[in-house]
Amino acid sequence: MNGPPAVSTSVPDRIGPLRRMWTRSYPALVGYALLAPLVAWIFLILFYPVGNTVLLSFTDTRIVGAPHRDVGLANYQAVLQSGAFWDATLKSIVWLAGNVLLQTAMAFAAALLLGQSWRLARQARIWVLLPWVIPTVAVAVIWQWMLNANYGVVGYILQALHVIAEPLNVFGSREGALPGTIVANAWHWFPLSAVVLFGAMQTIPRELYEAARVDGASSWGQFRFITFPMLRKVMFALGLVGGLWTFNVLDVIYLITRGGPAGATTTLPVVIYDTAFKSFRIGQAAAMSVVAIVLLAVAAALYVRFMSPRED
Amino acid sequence: MATTKSVRLARWLAWVVLVVVVLGPLFWIVASSFKNPSEIIRHVPTILPNEFYLGNYEYLFSSTRFPTYLVNSVAVAVLTMVATVVAATLAGYAMYRLRVRGSRSVGHAVLLSYMIPGTLLLVPVYVMLASVGLVDTIAGLVVVNVAFASPFCVWLLRGFFDAIPVELDEAAAVDGAGPLATLWKVNLPLLAPGLATIGLYAFIFSWTEFVLASQLIVSDDLKTLPIGLSAIMGQYNIQWGWLMAATSVTMLPVALLFAAVGRYFVGGLTTGAVKGA
């Protein structure tokens, strides 16, 4: 390697060109060394396996490590023709829509309250995150207990208020299980969106509200024409990341209903998990994963294309 | 004015709803955990336990595998936390302070990677861990948890690094400090809230994690709390009393940690939201 041409300056050249190159590039080298563990880690455990999934999807692997052979597109054919896969896709869409609607409403309401300036609001900014902080298994226990058909407090209160006549059987019924798990998951995740929205609301200039108030705008008018439009960017980002996270949720569903009763809560992640680890058809589960990733990517691309906030 | 009064009432009602929705369920679990076996399944529920019954907790710690699961969860969470904080801080320093070439691409990869679903990766990750003999080990679980937790941590750190004036680094450089000394002596002390934030996130991530642990851990001796609790829940005859006690104990460490450093965490999330937008 050629060093940089030895620039002769008035200062006597005490450090040679190689040495100078070293001192100049040393920080960068350190930088790459510091970056390396994380990059290697993420690549090995996250990105490389994605590629591996694609390879597995062309094989008839049943359990990990067992001999297998290539089957071409047979897994994809089986997946695309299976009613169970499309049923699960439909359930996933309902799951996603229900969660997005419920969480957005809850997060917005909470964020508006958190933005108030008195003491309770300032404290609430911290404890509101508790449902998100506690383990999912605790979330599952909480909602199974509160919505329990025999001893559940929610059913008791509703019965005492004569809202319902029969005891609730949320997770045991085909109609109730999916809405019930949606409520549990929304309760677990809405605090995160609430705090992010609250943070974004703090950046809206106070003067806008003052001006609106002078013009006689109501609270709703201020929300509708100032808060909401100013948050479009954050909501767009939250919608994208939150949507992907929500779609991929397995733990809440699996811990509460295991996909039941009779498949009522079998979303795509559940069917993939069961295919791989219950039916031991790993090749087919990999094909499902690939199809799911493609569906997600298409949905995300459409979302970005049509929902991006316009710059104005 | 009539409107102000009704607005004030609506605001109060909204706060009552928020408190009940957020804290009510948590209170209900803890209260139930101190009820005796007959009180807990009483048809007309009691708000507070009639007698302060500790039997559920005694049973939990003397006659179940719960203590083993608790120790395993603590080990996995602490190791995950330490490794994630180290990896994310070093990477964050390179990306947001030294700004080495390629930092932006790494940033994009980081964003992309926390959208990758754990379920879909379970199979290939299992295959890979099996090939190096890390399935059914605490170390294997930690390695995987760090990979899943660190992208979000790097993203969270950005706001904290940006808050430290660059002039401090430049002054250190003038004094002849290299990049490592600058990180250690100048940045790290000012980064304490950021480290608390990502440490908390990594701990919580690991403490909660169910999907990966359910397949990567096989031996009962190595199971973590979520796996152990889900097995209890799956039993035909659920013992609600000690399930409530187990859930309360499971929530306690994260609640305590959160009480201690939660405000830094909220600060990190809110600055991140502004930066990310």
Plain-language structure description:
- The complex is a heterodimer of chains A (312) and B (277).
- The two termini of chain A are 51 Å apart.
- Chain A has one domain: MetI-like (MetI-like fold), CATH 1.10.3720.
- The relative contact order of chain A is 0.12.
- Chain A has helices at 17-56, 74-81, 83-114, 119-127, 130-133, 136-146, 153-160, 177-201, 206-214, 219-230, 232-247, 251-256, 268-277, 282-307.
- Chain A contains 14 helices and no strands.
- Chain A is flat and about 70 Å long.
- Chain B contains 13 helices and no strands.
- The two termini of chain B are 40 Å apart.
- Chain B has 277 residues and is mainly alpha-helical.
- In chain B, 78% of the residues lie in helices and 0% in strands.
- Chain B has 2 domains: 1-63, no CATH class; 64-276, Orthogonal Bundle (MetI-like fold).
- Chains A and B meet through helix 1, helix 3, helix 4, helix 5 and helix 6 of A and helix 1, helix 4, helix 5, helix 6 and helix 7 of B.
Calculate Rg of chain A over CA atoms.
27 Å
Q: Which class do the helix and strand fractions of chain A yield?
A: mainly alpha
Q: What is the mean pLDDT of chain A?
A: 84
Largest sheet of chain B: none
Count of spatially separate domains of chain B: 2
- Biggest β-sheet of chain A: count, sense, barrel? none
The name of the CATH architecture of the largest domain in chain B is Orthogonal Bundle
Helix content of chain A: 55-70%
Distance between the termini of chain B: 40 Å
Strand content of chain A: under 5%
Total tally of structural domains of chain A: 1
